[in-house]
Specification:
Elements: E1 5-14, H1 18-29, E2 34-37, E3 54-56, H2 64-74, H3 81-100, E4 105-108, E5 111-114, H4 128-142, E6 145-147, E7 151-158, E8 161-168, E9 173-184, H5 205-213, E10 217-218, E11 223-230, E12 238-239, H6 242-247, E13 249-252, H7 258-261, H8 269-272, H9 274-287, E14 292-295, H10 301-304, H11 308-311, H12 314-321, E15 328-337, E16 340-341, E17 354-356, H13 373-393, H14 418-432, H15 439-456, H16 465-490, H17 508-511, E18 513-520, E19 523-533, E20 539-541
Parallel strand pairs: 1-2, 1-9, 2-6, 9-17
Antiparallel strand pairs: 3-5, 4-5, 7-8, 8-9, 10-16, 10-18, 11-12, 11-15, 13-14, 14-15, 18-19, 19-20
């Protein structure tokens, strides 16, 4: 498959959510020629757009030490402590950036919130859109270029710069994107699972691109599920805010209080015990044929609206779910990827010229992410990656000497439909690689995922642009799915978001550390980096 057009920039950024946009702005302000490439328009189809809009941090009276303690507690002993320290030190400055750039906000101790303009009424309230609007407007103001409607399929990076191979169905052609450096900020892999709250095209692109480019990957087994989502038959998935969920009463079909039954005492439970609550709800749903409920009928409007983000949901919940007059079925949904490319404090991977930020990376959150910390990570490390990539790209002549990615293999003509393959992949990941795992199920899941990957590689003779694009995205999705299942099969304990039915307890002696993998000529090379404690009790890699 020949490329038909070459585009150039000093710094290429893949993804236009919070991490990519912050990286783009800071890189441009530092003097780089910056181009952001995305599957759709700027900010559209990103997890930032659909985010709650609440960012955690040492803000409005919460100290840095208290913030760090919360993050480390949520991470179940596996957080990269240097990253947590950086987030604590720099979050406030990044929040101030958003204020300076015109975003409407509201604060509470430890929480920085984006507020939507106007009353959404009974329409779906989308809060993260305010963050995207603010960042896109600033990016356009400073001169960031946006290259839309492309799927990046492969990356070659090194000391001479970078070269990306990308396909545009609308343009009906391939592109070669050359530059001094590239920042992977294309999000996580939540849409790999049957039940999720991510945009449908967030299927692990960044993870597969990083792995295939030679990056060290870590913590891929940790996939976070948000516990309290309305799951009424025939209705769209809708998240209940942690504070709102605490106001309600969670029960199973026989009326047992789920928080009491599983001894979940921290509040808000959906913020500080997302892993335990998701696993409890999943178990109850299996045992009671999906009949797990939240009862909000006793909650007053005044109580509910005390939280400004919850307040924007009152009319929607009333009009679409009759939430204040009946119990509602709830279920956990795939929400966030805790693993990804391993980076240093400035977003650099082990591959020169290749940087990563946000949900494309692994490290800061350890075994479980504290609620509100995803966007904080995006802003803090998006800036750092933007500045570091700009420095690397100097004197690289926009990648004119960089090697091009190897041609994609095409194992033959298609035998199956790409949409069918993707739907099957999502079912497999939910059934075998989801909230609760065991050795037999993971082995079955891995075999099935590899079969899908083999079928997705069969693109010989595919000339219909949209069909080819779907096969390329399915290849990326299958690659990420395989990494997740392989990692989950290796960690023989339960910790944070990773729950093994056959190894139900955490095992610090054997598993307090990070599973890592890097691609080699003969396949994946996996290893385990244990964590030790120094004299002050701080974790460090051995």
């Amino acid at each position: 498959m020949e490329t038909t057009e070459t585009l150039r920039a000093d710094v290429w950024i893949i993804g236009s959510g919070a991490a990519g946009l912050m990286a783009a702005i800071k890189a441009k302000l530092a003097g780089a020629d910056v181009a952001v490439v995305g599957k759709s328009g700027p900010g559209k189809g990103t997890s930032t757009t659909f985010a709650v809009g609440a960012l955690a941090g040492p803000w409005d009276g919460l100290s840095e030490e208290d913030y760090k303690e919360r993050v480390l507690t949520a991470g179940r002993g596996l957080n990269e402590t240097e990253m947590v320290d950086i987030a604590a030190a720099e979050a406030g400055a990044r929040f101030q950036d958003l204020i300076d750039w015109g975003m409407t906000t509201k604060s509470a101790p430890g929480v920085f919130m984006a507020l939507p303009k106007g009353d959404p009424g009974d329409k779906v309230p989308v809060w993260g859109r305010e963050i995207v609007h603010t960042l896109v407007a600033k990016a356009e103001e400073v001169g960031v270029r946006f290259i839309n409607n492309l799927v990046v399929r492969s990356i070659a990076a090194g000391e001479d710069g970078v070269c990306l191979s990308a396909y545009g169905a609308r343009q009906r052609q391939w592109f070669e994107l050359r530059g001094g450096a590239v920042i992977l900020a294309a999000g996580g892999a939540g849409a790999l699972f049957l039940h999720h709250d991510n945009p449908k095209r967030i299927g692990g692109d960044a993870h597969t691109l990083a792995y295939e480019a030679g990056c060290v990957m870590q913590d891929m087994e940790f996939v976070q599920f948000y516990p309290v989502a309305i799951a009424e038959p025939g209705k769209q998935i809708f998240l209940i805010e942690p504070e709102g969920a605490d106001l309600g009463h969670l029960s199973n079909a026989v009326g047992e209080d789920i928080l009491d039954k599983y001894d979940i005492t921290v509040r808000p439970a959906a913020t500080h015990a997302r892993d335990a609550l998701s696993q409890a709800l999943f178990k109850e749903i299996e045992e009671h044929d999906g009949a797990v409920y939240i009862d909000l009928t006793h909650v007053t409007k005044e109580e509910w609206c005390a939280n400004p983000i919850s307040a924007t949901k009152w009319a929607y919940l009333d009009a679409n779910f009759n939430a204040w007059k009946q119990k509602l079925r709830v279920a956990p949904v795939a929400h966030f990827s805790g693993g990804g490319a391993r980076t240093d404090a400035h977003g650099a991977t082990n591959i020169p010229g290749l940087y990563a930020a946000g949900e494309a990376t692994g490290g800061m959150h350890g075994a479980n992410r504290m609620g509100g910390n995803a966007l904080t990570e995006c802003l803090v490390f998006g800036q750092r990656a933007g500045l570091a990539a700009t420095e690397f790209a100097k004197d690289k002549d926009k990648g004119s000497k960089a090697a091009a990615p190897a041609p994609l293999p095409s194992a033959g003509a298609p035998q199956e439909d790409a949409d069918d393959l993707r739907a099957e992949l999502c079912q497999i990941m939910w059934q075998y690689g989801g909230i609760r795992r065991d050795a037999a199920g993971l082995a079955t899941g891995l075999e099935k995922v590899r079969a899908i990957a083999a079928q997705a590689a069969r693109i010989r003779g595919v000339n219909e642009p949209r069909k080819l694009e779907k096969f390329l995205e399915t290849q990326l999705a299958a690659g990420a799915a395989e990494l997740i299942i392989q990692a989950a099969s290796r960690r023989e304990e339960s910790r944070g978001t990773h729950a093994r039915a056959d190894f139900p307890a955490a095992d610090d002696k054997k598993w307090r550390g990070h599973l890592k993998v890097v691609r080699q000529a003969d396949g994946p090379n996996w290893w385990f980096d244990a964590l030790a404690e120094d004299e002050d009790g701080i974790q460090a890699a051995e």
